[in-house]
Design goal:
This protein is an alpha+beta fold. Helices cover about 25% and strands about 15% of the residues. It has helices spanning about 35-50, 95-105, 145-150, 165-170, 190-195, 215-225, 230-240, 300-315, 325-335, 340-345, 410-420, and strands at about 55-60, 65-75, 80, 90, 130, 135-140, 265, 270-275, 300, 315-320, 320, 355, 360-365, 380, 385-390, 395-400. The chain has an 8-stranded antiparallel sheet, with helices on both faces. Strands 4-9 form a two-stranded antiparallel sheet. A two-stranded antiparallel ribbon has the order 5-6.
């Protein structure tokens, strides 16, 4: 995929976000009474008419839940309802956590943004690119850590006709079930990335925004620099300190009833249950539990991911735990690629300009570029239909979790609009 995904995802109010109570929070706080009724209605309509199996929506303002709803089914065939603590495959939402891990190591003096990735993964010293006419040529400049963080390394998911056959022969791209999927691989992620380095990329480093395996490469870099497997680094340095108890690469034993089932949108008619295996439910429960994919591997709850985002919104610190400096957060959340992101995603959007990409998140640089979202907003989403946004001006965090691939509904954009119309501007 060389195109960006559409940017596209009452007692509890008295508790800190760390308290993981299962009770839903009614509209309150910064939301005028009744303004969330439209979101309630739209979510329920999507479930009732079969466009959506189920979802969990969570909105924080000033770190407190002002809206939390679980609608529909976690497993419709088994009669299991969606719940606030349902666990979801978050796919590319993993990328922001991996990007934070990289910047933590940069801030610790263990590495730098301008270093070539080949310093840690020597296979990338001989990286190549498919040029005009299909000729394979060397890269003009080394691929750096900054290129990988901003998706300007030229590394795709191998779906382009010029490279698809080569990727398939190496067990990557479409042959992986989905281009980003590695949970079924009986090998560490660094072995997979070493194989990737032998394949041609689709753009010269620094010359285009290309969405693909870049953050998976960074996950391997984190392992090499820290000396820890990526799952352990996350657990010890990020998810553990932040109290993200349900975030992991593979489902813990005894938790299968908490994992949402994957469904698929069809052109006409209600969603259908996705098949078993890599092209459906995946291998997030049984493994083989060897591949910790920094680009698309994690499971999480809405509440867990909201804690990570709230830490970012607060400049790198939450509940006395510092993960990043404010300067590191600023690199993640401000446009670092100029017009390259807009150029890559232009066919998917009517608005030309005002969007960018930082070192971990897409950014909204002009009001109107992403619906109702304000300038300075940032976020991303996941292949299973999840989406999240952070609006600093509203001091708000928005998370929508669902499990549909493909997801042909418009629920992600409707969710954002209906949240923004409900939230009142905070008192300065």
């Amino acid at each position: 995929m060389t195109r960006a995904l559409p940017v596209v995802f009452a007692a509890i109010l008295a508790l800190p976000l760390a308290a993981q109570s299962p009770a839903p929070a009614p509209p309150a706080g910064g939301a005028p009474a009744g303004r969330f009724a439209a979101l309630d209605r739209v979510l329920q309509e999507h479930v009732d008419d079969g466009r959506l199996a189920g979802a969990v929506a969570l909105v924080l303002q000033d770190g407190k839940p002002v809206y939390e709803r679980a609608v529909g089914w976690s497993d419709k065939e088994a009669g299991r309802r969606m719940a606030p603590d349902t666990i979801f495959r978050i796919a590319s939402q993993t990328k922001a956590i991996t990007s934070a891990a990289v910047l933590m190591l940069v801030e610790d003096g263990r590495m730098s943004l301008t270093e070539p990735v080949s310093r840690y993964l020597p296979e990338f010293a001989k990286a190549t690119v498919v040029g005009q006419g299909g000729a394979v040529v060397p890269v003009k400049r080394p691929i750096t850590i900054a290129h990988l963080l901003t998706h300007t390394a030229g590394i795709s998911y191998g779906t382009e006709p010029a490279v698809a056959a080569a990727y398939e022969a190496k067990g990557l791209g479409p042959a992986a079930g989905y281009g980003w999927y590695t949970a079924d691989k009986d090998e560490p992620i660094c072995d997979t990335m070493a194989r990737l380095a032998s394949l041609p990329f689709v753009a010269q480093p620094g010359e285009a925004y290309v969405y693909g395996y870049s953050t998976d490469v960074l996950g391997c870099v984190v392992e090499k620099v820290s000396g820890l497997p990526l799952d352990r680094f996350f657990r010890e340095k990020i998810t553990g300190p932040l109290g993200m108890r349900d975030t992991a690469f593979y489902l813990p034993s005894g938790q299968s009833d908490r994992l949402a089932t994957v469904y698929a949108s069809v052109m006409d008619g209600p969603v259908v249950r996705a098949p078993a295996g890599a092209r459906g439910q995946g291998h997030y429960a049984e493994g083989p539990r060897k591949s910790f994919a920094g680009g698309a591997g994690l499971l999480a709850t809405a509440r867990d991911y909201a804690r990570f985002l709230e830490m970012i919104r607060r400049g790198g610190t939450l509940d006395g735990v510092r993960i990043l400096s404010p300067r590191g957060v600023r690199l993640m959340t401000t446009n670092q690629v100029g017009p390259l992101y807009d150029r890559a995603s232009a066919p998917l959007w009517d608005f030309d300009g005002g969007r960018g990409f930082g070192m971990g998140f897409s950014t909204t640089d002009a009001y109107g570029a992403n619906g109702f979202e304000g300038e300075g907003g940032f976020g991303w989403g996941g292949a299973y239909g999840t989406v999240y946004r952070v609006d600093p001006a509203l001091r708000a965090v928005l998370v929508l979790m669902l499990q549909q691939i493909p997801n042909r509904t418009d629920i992600r954009t409707r969710f954002q609009t209906l949240v923004y119309q409900a939230l009142a501007e905070p008192v300065r």
